[in-house]
Amino acid sequence: MPSRVQETIDAQGKVLIGYLPIGFPTLQDSIAAAIAMVENGVDILELGVPYSDPVMDGLVIQNATQVALANGFKLADAFVAVRAVTQAVDAPVLLMTYFNPVFQYGVDRFAADLAAAGGAGLITPDLIPDEAQEWLEAAEKHDLDRVFLAAPSSTAERLSSAITHSRGFVYAVSTMGITGARSDVDKAARGLVERLQEQGAEYVGVGVGISTGMQVREVLQYAQGAIVGSAIVKALTDGGVPAVAECVRGLAAGKP
After folding, report:
1. CA dist., res. 198 & res. 92, Å (int)
2. Which stretches of the chain are DSSP H helices?
3. Structural domain tally of the chain?
4. pLDDT in tens, 123-173
5. What does the DSSP 8-state code read for residue 1?
6. Sign (positive/negative) of CA torsion 59, 203, 168, 6?
7. How far out from the chain centre does Cα 55 lie?
8. Catalytic site residues?
């Protein structure tokens, strides 16, 4: 039986997935921005859990998470945000988090609290399936999606493992939109998605660096989801919730 994330992709055909860190610049601001994202065209929400050592995030997101932490973000705020958003809008909400906070909180307890808040699952950028047995068991127990990452450098075996153990979609990490290298980077993203699909992946979202409606349209020619983060965070930084709504409308215009 498909998950809520997969049902959303099946219903829409192609989806826009939007990322925002919880607690930036405040908890209530992030909740309002997340709701505005859905109201203006985001199909699936990816809410980030601020972490003190965000080694895989770009500068815009790093700065935002540091603001959230400085303003007093606590892990329990993640469940508050998920509950508030899911009560306000009908879109699946995934948390994106480094795994150490989950481990420290208690994996089964975290899964139970996320499910109770209405969350759909987790994206875990620093956790590979080979080391995820405790999380996989908790996710199965609490009916949560588990989204693992794949990169152009991933071996065939690693891609197969990500496909087998992911539920919701496989997160294909690309590097879209770099000045002077646009065609080469897009070719790499397409190649990664093709490799995943050849190994049986039905649901693939492409993320990292997508910032315009045109890039959303290009990605959705070959993937099921386009994932946008930094552009939305920058909009919130520069112009608050109204700027987020305007940014998302422009991104959503790229959906077929």
Report:
1. 27
2. 4-12, 27-39, 59-70, 76-88, 99-105, 107-116, 133-141, 156-165, 182-198, 213-219, 230-252
3. 1
4. 999 999 999 999 999 999 999 999 999 999 899 999 999 999 999 999 999
5. -
6. positive
7. 16
8. 46, 57
